[in-house]
Amino acid sequence: MNARVVMLGYASGIGARDPGCGDGPLRLRTSGLDEMLQARGVDAVWGEIYFPEPRRGETVRDTIQRLNKRLTLRVTEVLQGGGRPLVLGGDHSSAVGTWRGVLTALGADKKLGLLWIDAHLDAHTPETTHTGMIHGMPLAVLLGRLGRGGPGQAVVRPGHVAIVGARSFEAEEAMLLRELGVRVYGMEEIEQRGLAEVLREAHARVARETDAYGISVDIDSLDPNDAPGVGTPEPGGLRAGPLLAALAEITAAREPVALEIAEFNPHHDREDRTLRIVHEIAAVLTGAAQQDSPAEVERRYGVSGEATLPLVLVRGEGVWLWDQGGRRYLDMMAAYATVNHGHVHPRLVQALMQQAHQLTLGSHAFHNDRLPALLARLCQLLHMDRALALSTGAEAVEAALKAARKWAYRVKRVPEGKAEIIACEGGYHGQSITLAGMSSEAGRREGFGPYPKGFKLVPYGDAVALERAVTPHTAAFVVEPIQGESGIVVPPAGYLAQCKRICEDNGVLFLADEVQTGLGRTGAPLACDHEGVRPDGLMLGKALGGGMLPVSAFLARADLMSVLGPDDLGSTFAGNPLAAAVALEALNVMVEEHYAQRAAALGERLLTGLRAIHNPLVREVRGRGLLIGMELDVDAAGMRTVLERLTARGILSCPAARNVVRLSPPLVIQAAQIDWAIDEIAHALHEAHAAIGDGKAQRSTRASRRTSGPMRATS
Questions:
Q1: Cα dihedral: 612, 616, 617, 618 (round 10)
Q2: Domain that holds residue 612
Q3: At 699, is the secondary structure helix, strand, or coil?
Q4: Given 189, 389, 498, 504, which residue has the most CB atoms within 10 angstroms?
Q5: pLDDT at 450
Q6: What burial letters (b/e) apply to 429-449, b meaning 16+ CB within 10 Å?
Q7: Looking at the predicted structure, is the pLDDT value of residue 157 above 90?
Q8: What is the DSSP string of 353-417?
Q9: Which pLDDT score, from 0 to 100, does residue 705 have?
Q10: Is 41 inside a domain boundary?
């Protein structure tokens, strides 16, 4: 695409109910649109910006006609000079000037195709309009239907026009287009067939057997969640990502002769979300070199990750997260129960910044002034004797295992090399070789053996099985009070207390892995507190770092911790002053802002609301505090559908096990946000059930639509 792109502004909003779109071209000019296109290899320059100049006594329609005549002349000049016009509105009445100018340059006998991407049909005449707004009439004008003046000169033939994205229009418009044979692809059909397939077919219609074709994009064709900066937002529209990808494909197949983007209203934009989308649409339409997304760069240079949905997050605050496009989401997973304090809690940010200006890392050869305060606070708050600061949850569990084995040899007098650790089936304690060896999940073990010996697994929730597995060589029992990665599995009431009694009776250490459940998540400082159990050893992580830094800890009774020597445990960054300062403040905030009490009350509210959802997909809702799982009757593809529907409604979650939706929001969430989330989850499940449960009916409908007549608009 070597032709110079000349950007022409149509700074008129007088044809719309909301005239704010008239300021769209100026906002685009000051935003550096030309510089962005140039940086991506497009020879792009700004031309004129045309403003309406009403004359005394003339109608709005007369003013718009004069404005469009000026635009027509300039579009013609650009094309005849070897350039390619990109008209930027302003309201969609610009289409009359844009495409008349294109046909004038091509020649009146030429065939022009037009791909019209819009939430509306814009096919009213003066006789049928309900509002009198001119921006609802340009397609009728281009088709030669002028109304009172009788048929006018058509710019495009009905068979060479395709409308994509329609979802809000009046019956009179639909009837006119149906009679003419204009092909309309409504949102219902797009959702069934997929946008890429629809745009390929629409592109073939307008580009095949025509001398040239153009693309006109009304920004209100997009879903207002993606593009709020429009004057006539219509819910349920096209999503920005799929639209950009599909446009890139069809424009690469055949270059459009001219381009138009209309109805960008900067007064309704939020955080420049729509502005950025307009930039990207302009880039795709002009053939700009596509910049790899962060996700694509990560895939190219990184190791295959676990991202469930192609979402790139760039900002967080409290319970909210924002993606690259500026869309906001309610975070209902909190990084696997790590961001208990909400994103960028101001007190934690202050603690981080203050310490970062003082000292971030010393050495284990010396003391620092921040770690002692953290260790004391941990032991006093959680009623433990000693604490060891580390960085990750896996490190804390490894430390517990090493301490337990050494204790077994030194204190319990288990023969050297015979100490056993009992863990639970379905448990998750980390990704190291040792911890993978404790897993019963084949996917976590395959390809990593051989594994260290000395581990037994027993069914989770079965205290009798634990008692049978204990031998004189058993050093410790390691257990999650609630199993997170297996699907938020809550054991039977009294299970932890029974296991603690069995351990005490047999001289076995009870080690509680509270990396995910600890620090208020389940409605108590520790999940063990619900049964009055004090573990012999305790592992913490995730929320201890406040969602800022990796911080973990192993806490234990004095006789257990005393078996460890100075060279037995530790790592370079463990206990560093920066991490200690943040973790100490995270503990203080947790207590002062009553996180455990909030999790108990709001967790009950969330559980009650979710259990009231009646949907065939839901098998069970379970959990404690704000650690909740919703088990669904779906396969992997169905689970993805559910997560996509949740994301579309502004809810971020991820699976806990194959078919369990994880719901573990930050503990700073408010009751109103809980209630909103419940409603959105219910709607998302309803949509997912319709998509998953009626697949056969959808395929049948799709087939019938492909063979039906040319008009398929739906309101």
A1: 30
A2: 300-331+595-697
A3: helix
A4: 389
A5: 80
A6: bbeeebbbbbbbeeebeeeee
A7: yes
A8: HHHHTT-S---TTS--SSHHHHHHHHHHHHT-SEEEEESSHHHHHHHHHHHHHHHHHHTS-PPTT
A9: 32
A10: yes
Report the C-alpha gap between 263 and 122 in whole angstroms.
Answer: 12
Lowest mean pLDDT among 32-41, 50-59, 197-206, 316-325: 316-325
> In which order are the strands placed within the sheet that holds 320-323?
313-317, 320-323, 328-331, 651-652
Examine the domain organization and report whether 219 and 366 are in the same domain: no
253 and 376 fall within a common domain: no
Residue 279 and residue 394 in one domain: no
CA-closest candidate to residue 228, choices 171, 176, 168, 274: 274
Segment 454-465 mean pLDDT? 96
* Distances from the Cα of 163 to the Cα of 141, 197, 201, 438, angstroms: 15, 14, 11, 58
SS3 293: coil
For residue 22, the domain's CATH number is: 3.40.800.10
Question: Can you give the pLDDT at residue 496?
Answer: 98
- Report d(CA 137, CA 133) in Å as an integer: 8
Q: Can you give the CATH number for the domain in which 473 is found?
A: 3.40.640.10
Within-domain flag for 466: yes
Q: Would the pLDDT of 282 be above 50?
A: yes
* pLDDT score for 149: 39
Residues 583, 605: one domain? no
The pTM of the full predicted model, rounded to 2 decimals, is 0.69
What's the average model confidence in pLDDT over 146-158? 69
User: Binning pLDDT at 50, 70 and 90, where does residue 570 land?
Assistant: confident
Q: How confident is the model at residue 264 (pLDDT cuts 50, 70, 90)?
A: very high
Are residues 564 and 626 located together in one domain of the fold? no
Which helix (H) or strand (E) is 497 found in, with range? helix 495-505
Beta-carbon contacts of residue 446 (< 8 Å; ≥ 6 apart): none
Calculate ∠ Cα 428-431-437, nearest 5°: 70
689 and 558 in a common domain = no
Q: How far is CA 286 from the centre of its chain?
A: 28
Which of 570, 589, 608 corresponds to the end of one domain? 589
Same domain, yes or no: 479 and 603: no
Q: What is the rounded average pLDDT of the residues 348-366?
A: 93
Number of structural domains the chain divides into: 3
Range 395-404 burial, b when 16+ CB lie within 10 A, else e:
bbbbbbbbbb
Q: Same structural domain for residues 612 and 465? A: no
How many whole angstroms separate alpha carbon 8 and alpha carbon 49? 6
Query: What count of other Cβ atoms lies within 10 Å of the Cβ of residue 292?
Result: 10
Contacts of 419 (CB under 8 A, 6+ apart): 404, 405, 408, 409, 454, 473, 474, 475
List the structure tokens of 110.
Answer: 């030429």
Report whether pLDDT(10) > 50. yes
DSSP 238: B
Tokens of 139: 């397609």
**pLDDT of 445 higher than 80:** no
